Fold:
Amino acid sequence: MTGRCRPRLVAIVGPTATGKSALGIALARRLDGEIVACDSTAVYRGFDIGTDKVPPAEKQGVPHHLVDVADPTEEYSAARYARDASTVVRDITARGKQPILVGGTGLYYRALTRGFFPGPGRDRALRARLERIADRRGSERLHRMLGRFDTTAAARIQSRDRKRLIRAIEVYLVTGRPLTSHFADTTSPLPEYDVAAFALMIPPESTAERVATRVAAQFDQGLLGEIRMLLLAGVPPTAHPFTGLVYRQALEHLNGVRDEAATRELIVRENRKYSRRQLIWFRKEPNLQWIHAAGERPETLEEVVRALTAVEIRRDASDS
Structure:
């Protein structure tokens, strides 16, 4: 397909606390669209407050997809996301609506727009050895190991993310090639789509202020109570969503590691670090149009609409 025959996927991505959700909803209302979440924690049912899921009253009637689609004990991977999201995007298009991807999980965005390397099958013996190394010497040891042969992956994976570290090391030791080199060979699961992607960025001091406000609101809205209810419902503390930002630190507080004030401060600091990592990731993504403003500003919506209109005009010109 060429020209106007090609369907379009609009994407709103970028670091945390930049107003992506607000912009996505406003844009969906303007374009008669539906939102496809691009968030590795929002997929899990029951983990609501710490993931800042948009409350039903704030969705303004805009359908949101790929939220609450997995049980906390499931392992929801980027490969599964790419499959699920591509199906949802095509369904939205088939119904005459505009699919709008919204979120900040860079790996999910890349898997959907550029493809995902599924990798070799799991080597249980190798994984067991790597798990023992992490148990004895900490996941930081795995992070240093990865840095010796895949500096790009080491820069993108947190030193505490044992699961992803083990997978990256496993891929290298089994295939002889770094994980990042495999990604270079992938193709998008949506090859027939044109992707118009916008990334939001705000000054660091604004991020710090917004993150602090968000964390305070999460605690005020009952974050700790939500975690207690999840545990009482039988969700094990080792469940994957409990290892993520906000939930990991809050669970440590409930286990007596630190008091609430220190936990709040830690979550704010970790959010700011996460924002910087997201910025680094998205800066390496091709064909993003950066918008230096918060997503909830009316001017930001108009800037995106103007940019999309300009793209349509260019497509019309190329078809004529």
Notes: The two ends are 15 Å apart (CA to CA).
